[in-house]
Amino acid sequence: MASKVKLNVQSFPRPPALQKISRDIRITFRGDTIAQTQDAYWVLETHHPPSGFPVMTPISFGRALLSLQPLMGTAYYLPRTSVKLALTPTGRRTGCEWKGTATYYEAKLGDGTTVANRIWSYEAPTPAFEPIRGYLSFYAGPPWDCFVDGRKG
């Protein structure tokens, strides 16, 4: 396995940069590969370290868990053809001043589990992010495992 490259997140650009990468990106569900590619993009943004996939942090009020939100993570974008899941848009949209409006999806996994709003894409990105039009990104963590060059993210 190749050694890790040390990157200084303070030197990442703002606005973020989009880079084509040839790292092996693999996502599994209960040991079965549901997505894999060596033809992905990643977004490099100031103070957002390349952690493999977005690190999720719980947002809660009192004892109630309200949601999981991405915290300081680099997103990888995979070609839709590398994803072995049927996806249905959920209607959820979020905006990014740099990339445009994200569309979120629901996926039905092999055991019948339905997962919503943990996969997204930019269907009409800004001109600078046109290369990721239709590419998909996954939030890391349950119910799947995400790997970059064989290392779990």
Automatic annotation (TrEMBL):
InterPro entries: DUF427 (IPR007361), DUF427_sf (IPR038694). It holds the Pfam family NTP_transf_9. Residues 74-140 form the DUF427 domain. It comes from the Eukaryota. PANTHER family: DUF427 DOMAIN-CONTAINING PROTEIN, SLR0655 PROTEIN. This is DUF427 domain-containing protein. It comes from Purpureocillium lilacinum (Paecilomyces lilacinus).
